[in-house]
Amino acid sequence: MSTGFDEEYKREVLEPAREAGDQPPEDLRVRYRLGDPLRPGEVAERVREVRQCWRRARGQLKYRKLIDRLEAEHRELTPLFTAAERGDVGPLAERLRGGAERTARRLADARARLDDAAGALRLAAPGEVEELARAAGIGRAELEAAAAAARIEVRDPDPLPVSPPYAGYRKVRESLDVLGCRHLAEFLFGERAAGPLQVLGGFAAPGVPADPTALPEAVRAVSDLWARRTRDSSSTHANTVLVALRSASPDDLILYDVVARLRERRRQRASEAALLRHAVAELGIEPLDARRLVFAVLRESGPGGGPAERLRALLDAGEVYAAAVLGSSPPEAADEQEHAEAELLGEEARRRVAAAVRLRDSAAGEPDPDRAWRMLADALALVRDLPGAEEHQRRLPPHPVPRVRATAEGAGVRVDWAPSPSAVGEVGYLVVRRRDRPPDGDGDGEPVASDGTGVLDVRPPVNVPLFYGVVARRGEAAAPIVCAGPVVVRPEPQSVELVPGDGAVTGRWSVPEGAARVVVTREGRPVPAEREGFREQVPNGFTHHYVIRAVYVDAEGRAVETPGVMASATPNASPEPVRDLVVEGDPADPARLLARFGQPASGTVEILMLDTPPPWRDGALLPVAEVRRAGDRVPATPTSRGLALRPGGGGWLLAVTVAGEVAAIGAWHRHVNLPPLPSLVAERRGDAVHVGFDWPDEVAEVELTYRCGADEDEGEGRLVVTRAAYESRGGVHLTVPPGLAVRVAAAPAGMRQGARVLGPAVDTTVEAPPQVRYDLERSGPPWNRSLTVRLTSSRPLRVTRLALVRRAGQVIPQRREDGEVLGAWDEVPVPGEVSVPAPRGRGPYWLRCFADDDVELVDPPVRRLETPR
């Protein structure tokens, strides 16, 4: 399978399905990349390729759930693909039509739900579209296209202010109500604010210039107007509104005023249509702005904006100290109920802060750092933003580790320690290393990466005394250091390898850094060696044990030997290759093969299975490891008939002779992994031979060959039978010449690597039945005639069952059932004769004998069979 197919399938099938909530495509043509029209061979091959792509894609976590669903549904679809592989694509075609209908229904349902979500505003949020697409099991892009066709706009809600830009907005709202103004814009512009107004992205009205100075100018004009009026209660309320307009941005204040009125109607359980009508007809908002405002208000998590809401948000976020500060002088609330709620929330925040401060002050005088840490943790649980508590907690060190141990391990040092007794907070550990003396603290020495309560220092200095210290840390504080040592690292020789040969052993190794030399002994006796290897002549057939030691020179000039690396080798004579290899099926076990070859004089024979032809020449001597990397060793059992193999797959069977670490390349055999046909049965039925066998599941075709008689010219044939044809005809029927034996052979067939291959063949022979000739004789007077059947043959035998049949009229009987049985005899000897009374009656009739299939009955001349009247 090419990488290009995998990438294309992921892009066009898996990614859209994953975006649709791991919903497999309903259309099987898309899921399995099926062509049109459906062809049995192409369907089987395409399904195999797609499932291989599934197995490779499952290694990626993002596809795992989707692939599991695809595999689960594939088990339900297996009968459809099995029928298609056998030539019947009807069920699969019917399922394809049903899949298209289900996909259409799913899309229609998603469109209906989107239409409900959009409502009268004809607006929907991107998150809503994605959720609906996932629930329906379709792609988001497909649903967005449907939204565009239905004139539904998909957009994010506009951000709306959550708090008033002026703290005294509640008083402003009361003053506007007293003055009879629908909103701030009407107070500023009067009749010019009748509509339509735009408030999103800046204020705009039909009679107001599109100028940044228009609103400040309007504020000054209204101020001058009210300054000229007589002072009364209305002037007081107007001044309240004007103070707000001078203190905050008029744009922001107008927008918040409109939004607050819409939120108020929403709290009163107004419907979507009622909110839109209120915004357009009563507030005079431009229809497009009104739709966007109502859409944003309806998608808000809550009305928000008041002091109580701000206090509650701070408390929910754990910022209790900030809530207490805000509650000490809360902003003016929009109504009395909200003001009272803000007072209660502020009081709760102050109580929690007071309790947390007491815990913080107690922790400051606590000598046990763990107990102080717990107090501060309780204080922070009450007030997460309590000043000074988190900083104090970070400066509390844990208890030191009770024990540290350092031991040399190969070329490194293993350091482990008991954990700190401190059970609170997140305690970490820092390991430092120093030569010649213990480290004084976490900054005195070289740090070593650590994990948990142990670490392996993989590259420490060698042949010098090393000390290790462990520091327990919690936050920014560190406990006193605890040390271990000294430990001296003297690595053994690395990559030690002994190679046995014919009467010799060769040794190789890598000298460790810092070692002066390497010494070798065999069974306690020194072996001459160079710095990086040796070669010694030794007897074949015996195992020789060696010890390879590194020698170091310490600070006082003394030579110190390591314990050493032990290794063994058994030299042997060179292996001889297998020159002849015969592999054939085992008649006793169809799943097994028998390999026969001449046993070589030296070495042990192994059979390897390779995916490609062996790349080595016959007789080549190679390292055993190299040969075994090229293939898999086939399990083999010695038997009296040869080596019994169970290869388990197809490929090249290679005979390898192994002696020690050397392998000799021998003969090989191409093995096709097609099982033999069990239970081959051939029966002769007149001029035909019926052939039957059990059809293995993994076999697509069977090649049948047959030969009639000993002479090749008598008759020979070959035909390829598919499983569908075999099952529809109830077996294979061969027309053969009479009187000749027929030898039938059947072998499984298939395609491997683009070539047609045959599996092991099984055969059987159907012998020709013996010929028996007969003659009919009529004797006796007319009133007492008899019919005598005389039988002759080239050799004596017995006919299992013989019947004489009479048929009136002009047509000779062709079967025993075509007429009246005048006589029937069992076990009739040949040569011999049998008699029956002649039939009575008028008119012509025919006589003919019939026998079972164990003999071939030869009729006399036709005139001997017809009796005229």
Question: Would you kindly provide a written description of the structure presented here, covering whatever features stand out?
Answer:
It is a single chain. 33% of the residues lie in helices and 29% in strands. It is an alpha+beta fold. The two termini are 81 Å apart. The model has no long low-confidence stretch (mean pLDDT 82). InterPro entries: Fn3_SaeA_4th. This is SaeA fourth Fn3-like domain-containing protein. Residues 1-26, 434-455 are annotated as: Disordered.
Number of DSSP strands? Answer: 43
Share of helical residues: 25-40%
- Distance N terminus to C terminus? 81 Å
User: What structural category arises from helix and sheet content?
Assistant: alpha+beta
| Rg computed from alpha carbons, rounded to a whole number of angstroms | 50 Å
What order do the helices and strands come in, and which of them pair?
Blueprint: H1 3-19, H2 28-32, H3 40-57, H4 61-85, H5 90-118, E1 123-124, H6 126-136, H7 140-149, E2 153-154, H8 169-179, H9 184-189, H10 214-228, H11 233-247, H12 250-267, H13 272-282, H14 287-298, H15 307-316, H16 320-328, H17 336-364, H18 369-382, H19 389-394, E3 404-409, E4 412-417, E5 427-435, E6 446-448, E7 454-457, E8 465-474, E9 477-478, E10 482-488, E11 494-500, E12 504-510, E13 517-522, E14 525-527, E15 533-537, E16 544-553, E17 559-561, E18 565-569, E19 582-586, E20 589-596, E21 604-610, E22 621-623, H20 624-629, E23 632-633, E24 636-639, E25 642-645, E26 651-659, E27 662-671, E28 681-685, E29 688-692, E30 701-708, E31 716-722, H21 723-729, E32 732-735, E33 742-752, E34 755-758, E35 762-766, E36 771-779, E37 786-793, E38 797-808, E39 820-830, E40 832-837, E41 845-851, E42 856-858, E43 866-867
Parallel strand pairs: 1-2, 36-42
Antiparallel strand pairs: 3-4, 4-7, 5-6, 5-8, 8-9, 8-10, 11-12, 12-15, 13-14, 13-16, 16-17, 16-18, 19-20, 20-25, 21-23, 21-26, 22-27, 24-25, 26-27, 28-29, 29-32, 30-31, 30-33, 33-34, 33-35, 36-37, 37-40, 38-39, 38-41, 41-43
Helix pairs in contact: 3-4, 4-5, 5-6, 6-7, 8-11, 10-11, 12-14, 13-14, 15-16, 15-17, 16-17, 17-18
